[in-house]
Write a structure and sequence with these properties.
Methane Monooxygenase Hydroxylase, Chain G, domain 1
């Protein structure tokens, strides 16, 4: 039989696993929505995340309870401190996904022509959502080499989002010169795509915190 401390940690990891899976499920729906320009996918993404903040608060309360009852040390202490900061990153990531989904649905309903932009917007979404997959995977990895490998993968995807966003921005600016009447619409699309770049940034922050949890060091270098 597990002792109380081990049981508490197990329950915490299960809560975190459930929260992480909801993020991945929502990201998959949003990515499908980008690829097919289907509003239903974006609705699904938002609905999947409707309880994110409550779930994150539940995890935080579980962590604080663990601190109060068991006074963890060393690796487990670092892990719990990292989780406290990670839940905030996940809530912000959830907000990014919901905002992106809401705005994309608005663009589709307004019959914006994505044909010129879709190649790069699809690639941008693919990199952003891949970074999320790697970040959530990192929450459940114990091996130091594996977590370092995931961190590198997230950084690669985050770098891709920067490059792809820059290309998309240039394309949109070029289109503005051709059709100034659609300038407001085009700028709104660019603002929406910025949400993808922010998701990748959040993914980097999460994996950096898991590096701290596994390898130690000063948390200010990871948060």
């Amino acid at each position: 039989m597990l002792d109380r401390y081990e049981k508490q940690l197990q329950e915490l990891h299960e809560l975190l696993k459930t929260l992480g899976q909801s993020i991945i499920d929502a990201a998959n729906e949003a990515e499908n929505g980008v690829n097919t320009l289907t509003c239903k996918n974006f609705d699904n993404a938002k609905n999947t995340l409707k309880n994110t903040e409550n779930s994150a608060n539940q995890i935080d309360q579980s962590i604080l309870k663990t601190f109060a009852l068991f006074e963890p040390e060393a690796l487990e202490l670092r892990e719990l401190v990292a989780y406290l900061k990670i839940t905030s990153e996940i809530v912000r990531m959830s907000d990014n996904i919901k905002s992106f989904s809401r705005r994309m649905k608005g663009h589709i309903n307004s019959e914006v022509d994505f044909s010129i932009l879709q190649e790069y917007s699809n690639l941008l979404a693919k990199s952003a959502f891949s970074s999320i997959d790697f970040a959530i995977e990192s929450l459940h990895v114990k091996d130091k080499e594996d977590i370092t490998d995931l961190y590198r993968k997230v950084c690669v995807e985050e770098s891709k989002t920067d490059d792809l966003y820059s290309i998309l921005e240039k394309n949109i600016m070029a289109n503005l010169c051709k059709d100034i009447e659609k300038s407001a619409q085009s700028i709104e699309i660019l603002s929406t795509m910025r949400k993808l770049e922010r998701m990748a940034d959040r993914s980097v922050n999460i994996t950096k915190l898991m590096l701290f949890a596994r390898n130690g060091g000063e948390i200010k270098h990871f948060g």
